[in-house]
Amino acid sequence: MLLRSRSFLPSAARKGMLSLIATTCLMSCGGAALAQSAGASSVDAAPGRVQGKAAPSASTASTRAVTGKPAAKTRNALRTRQSAPIHSGESEGGSEAIVVTGTREIGKKARDSIAPLDIVSHKQLAATGQGTLRDALALLLPSLTTPTAGFDAGAMTDTISLRGLNPNETLVLVDGKRRHNTANIYSNPGPQQGSTASDIDMIPMAAIDHVEVLRDGASAQYGSDAVAGVVNIILKKQAHGLHAQSITGITSEGDGFQQGVYLDGGASLGSRGYVHVSGDFVHQDHTYRSAADNRTGTYQNNILSQPEQTRESVAINAGYDLTDDIQLYALGTYAHRYAQSYQNYRLASSLNAYPAYKAIYPWGYSPVETLNENDYELKAGLRGDFHGWHWDVSSVYGRDYDDIGLINSVNLSTNKATGATPTSFNVQGFNNQQWTNDFDFSRKFTFSGWPHSVNFAGGASYRYEGYSVGTGSPGSLYGNGSDALAGTNPGNAGNYSRDVAAGYLDISTYLAKGLQLDLAGRYEHYTDVGNTQNGKVSLRYDITRRIALRGTISNGFHAPTLAQKYYSALNISPTAARGLIGAGSPGALANGSSGLKPERSTNAEGGFIVEPIRDLHVTTDIYQINMRDRIMPGGNISGATAISAMQMNGFALPADISTWNQSAITANWFANVASTRTQGLDITVTYLTRLGAFGRIDWDAAINLNRTRLSHQASNPVTGAPLLNAASIAYLTTAYPRSKIIFGGNWTHAKWVVGLHEIRWGQTTNQLTYYAPGPYQFSTTHFLEYQNKPKWTTNLDVSYRITPRWTATIGGNNIFSAYPTRVPDGNRYLGAPQYYMSTSQLGINGGYYYFRVNYDL
């Protein structure tokens, strides 16, 4: 792979001015919803498997006095501020757990959270039986969704979405620090198109203590991307112990075998430090869910399949107390992934004029995209106390490098010109790097005449972002290029970068007994897209010890990624071609493209928490997210216009493309295409039933209702045509489930734990292309409305503690093997994709059954 690189030398940070946005605020509630259990808890009663002791009564969530005293200067306090308690059971969750997401206060307890916050413990993640963090969270949180299947290279990156928005609108943190993004853009049509979010599965599952999910806009606190919420992954920091886990699973169809091995352990660094080392090995095989190919009547076309992948990852987390007031901390993560994804099957007849290839593929061939990915991140920092001031200075450098290849393919032009017969190619290379430097400080003040302390926090950051697109190997570029995915030509390769400087302020206090206020403001300067100012106002009012209200008004933004600005690629199917060209490229500019602007949002949220009777905890939150200038591919040019645009960008097209169905030849580019309004409702409920000598049952239920509507659509300045067609509008508005419900319980007795949960996946609606011969074949203006009906799945797990150290679990997800609604025959390209891949509802694999063994020392 010829990936052109530049020396890593970011320009000087621009000096930013701090701007606090004053806005009216929405009345607010909440206390944290009291957690379910010590073993698997969630502040807002997050659904999932629940183990351990009962959650505290809501009476424990009464308003606590604010003393204003500085935090104790102890080594344990310094470690706690890294992001989570490390020497106590509080790291498991519960209303007494210390949380760090959505607040700048030191030592904030979950029960006092001012915003909706889910805490998912490592035990809860393991109880799902899933080998990846993404898939585990999808079974536990109704507001979180993942792609149904995906295809091409996009299927080989694991992303998540909150509240029906693009993955780019969810910010991922690790121990409170911004995580770098993947370099592998999801370029195929669908609701995830354009996303280069953080791939959370490149962090070892074994390293995770718990996950805090903030369901609230938080750009004023954390910067770009925190529009739908924040996922903060808190890593283990114990200076002792050894944990080992093995998960073996297979689908109900007998394919998709998975094996995961997870190890972690800690040790002391003298009497003043700790080191915790974690590692994963995960392998999953292909699944095959394609219907028969229309051309042959066989099942050789494996386009509808789960990618095969093998992933190894490791994390080393350490801290050392230089003095009683200063701690040095560091983190390093590294992950390698090799994955393969099928392309559409090519008939043997396509090689009749090429005897050399005909000899290799006498029965035809299926090109396979490959991903060879290396991902790492290094963090180092100092934090401490100085005369009541808590300070933290850190530097984080992360990089993701993706080498995209193609095997089992051809380049017919090379064979015709030289007689050579290559079958594998290096086609693309992407590099994404991010260097973030933060300085944060906070202190509580008391003022005469004001009965409550005031927590004052602030900070500044500088971030360098770099993105590189490398050219394909000569074999992938020659003539018409490698079949299925042509190599990136030099005209579409390059190195791009920008600098980001930011500053923020955060002030929180009590206005009266039981009435909390939090104000946040942030200013950011981007060297390529200008300035943004964001503010947030939050309130929480504890009416009684059993009833509270909470609410927030804020604005947010998502700055266009460098990949969204500069990525380009050409995908060629047996009878169709689709080009995604750079927004600033000659072909896009000639057809009305303009520079990308940041997406901007206005968020409003309000809710309440009640405990009507002992052990029954209920939280309800409603929200509205208005987004402007949303980024998706727009333009949708086709035929001769698309051919001309792609040729202007240097793409090599098949020699006979002028004879193809011109509607099957399309191109587009990323643009600010529309404004939307997302409205929703979150409800969580937990209840404990005590059975005396027969143990206990921890019940939980949660629901997310979500709807997005289009409020404005942009037009092409050259042609005046709308930038979106019906299919693209559906990706924005109806491709995510209208609802997701999770409910069930865990029965715990002696050495047994039995969990049973139901998940209802709500309806999605999409506009399908016609592929069958007829007046609308390959039309970009006429579509078939397709409804992926609601589906129910059942998850069951049974655990037995064999000895104090060994536990065995047998379980299954979707044990009755529900599948998505089948796509009509005439709307399947070549007949194979019987389930719709560009949505985020029920997965395509059917049932999944697993056996898990845990060892704890």
Automatic annotation (TrEMBL):
<keyword id="KW-0732">Signal</keyword>
<dbReference type="Pfam" id="PF00593">
    <property type="entry name" value="TonB_dep_Rec_b-barrel"/>
</dbReference>
<feature type="signal peptide">
    <location>
        <begin position="1"/>
        <end position="35"/>
    </location>
</feature>
<protein>
    <submittedName>
        <fullName>TonB-dependent outer membrane receptor</fullName>
    </submittedName>
</protein>
<keyword id="KW-0998">Cell outer membrane</keyword>
<dbReference type="InterPro" id="IPR000531">
    <property type="entry name" value="Beta-barrel_TonB"/>
</dbReference>
<keyword id="KW-0675">Receptor</keyword>
<dbReference type="InterPro" id="IPR036942">
    <property type="entry name" value="Beta-barrel_TonB_sf"/>
</dbReference>
<keyword id="KW-0812">Transmembrane</keyword>
<feature type="domain" description="TonB-dependent receptor-like beta-barrel">
    <location>
        <begin position="327"/>
        <end position="815"/>
    </location>
</feature>
<keyword id="KW-1134">Transmembrane beta strand</keyword>
<dbReference type="Pfam" id="PF07715">
    <property type="entry name" value="Plug"/>
</dbReference>
<dbReference type="InterPro" id="IPR012910">
    <property type="entry name" value="Plug_dom"/>
</dbReference>
<keyword id="KW-0813">Transport</keyword>
<keyword id="KW-0472">Membrane</keyword>
<comment type="similarity">
    <text>Belongs to the TonB-dependent receptor family.</text>
</comment>
<dbReference type="InterPro" id="IPR039426">
    <property type="entry name" value="TonB-dep_rcpt-like"/>
</dbReference>
<dbReference type="InterPro" id="IPR037066">
    <property type="entry name" value="Plug_dom_sf"/>
</dbReference>
<feature type="domain" description="TonB-dependent receptor plug">
    <location>
        <begin position="110"/>
        <end position="230"/>
    </location>
</feature>
<feature type="region of interest" description="Disordered">
    <location>
        <begin position="46"/>
        <end position="98"/>
    </location>
</feature>
<keyword id="KW-0798">TonB box</keyword>
<feature type="compositionally biased region" description="Low complexity">
    <location>
        <begin position="54"/>
        <end position="67"/>
    </location>
</feature>
